[in-house]
Amino acid sequence: MSSIAVYPGSFDPITNGHLDLLERGLKIFDNIIIAIAANPGKTPLFTLEERCDMIRTALASHPAGHRVKVDLFHGLLVDYVKTVPARAILRGLRAISDFEYEFQMALMNRKLEPEVETLFIMTGMRWIFISSRIIKEVVMSGGCVNGLVPEIVEKKLQEKLKGHNNTLY
Ligand code: PNS
């Protein structure tokens, strides 16, 4: 039986840090599902479909792309994980500052569904300072994020910037 992990997140947008984590995860799991949360509590820059398309494009030429599925989920993550079905949630850790939020989330998910475990992987050192939030902030302020996000993401960020006349925030 193949091992499957669900890698959930907002991915607004996906960064090279996310891709680094995905590649590390693929050394452990046969298949990974990138599950984009339709989280009504957040106001994303990109729609769910845009995020999904960017991830698919970024993975199209990836040698292990065929082992990755991109999906959306509504509601509780653990409920989605059970429908896969999978028993592992994959999350990345960059710094100690991530830990408290991740710890809370992992323990809540365990409380909600004890059969599902959360596994943490440390992000590669090259990417520890990157987050979707900071990438958006840099681009919206006119900075360059080349090499920090997939090409398609850089292009789409530029398009959003033009379309919104620099007033996204
Ligand atoms: O990339 P993010 O925004 O840190 O990802 C957070 C995410 C989407 C994994 C988390 O908010 C989530 O799982 N949302 C779904 C709702 C849920 O299950 N909440 C209970 C876990 S605390």
Describe the structure.
- With 169 residues, the chain is an alpha/beta fold.
- The protein has a five-stranded parallel β-sheet with strand order 3-2-1-4-5, sandwiched between helices.
- The model has no long low-confidence stretch (mean pLDDT 94).
- It has six helices and five strands, in the order βαβαβαβαβαα.
- The chain has a single domain (4-129), classed as 3-Layer(aba) Sandwich (Rossmann fold), CATH 3.40.50.
- α2 (48-60) links the parallel β2 and β3 (68-73).
- It starts with a strand and ends in a 6-residue tail after the last helix.
- The chain has helices spanning 16-26, 48-60, 77-83, 96-112, 132-140, 151-163, and strands at residues 4-9, 31-37, 68-73, 88-93, 117-122.
- Bound molecules: 4'-phosphopantetheine.
Q: What percent of the residues sit in helical stretches (DSSP H or I)?
A: 40-55%
Q: Which CATH top level class fits? A: Alpha Beta
Low-pLDDT runs of 5+ residues are: none
User: What class would the helix/strand composition place it in?
Assistant: alpha/beta
Give a concise summary.
With 169 residues, this protein is of the alpha/beta class. It has helices at residues 16-26, 48-60, 77-83, 96-112, 132-140, 151-163, and strands at 4-9, 31-37, 68-73, 88-93, 117-122.
List keywords for this structure.
5-stranded parallel beta sheet; 169 residues; Rossmann fold; 5 strands; binds 4'-phosphopantetheine; single chain
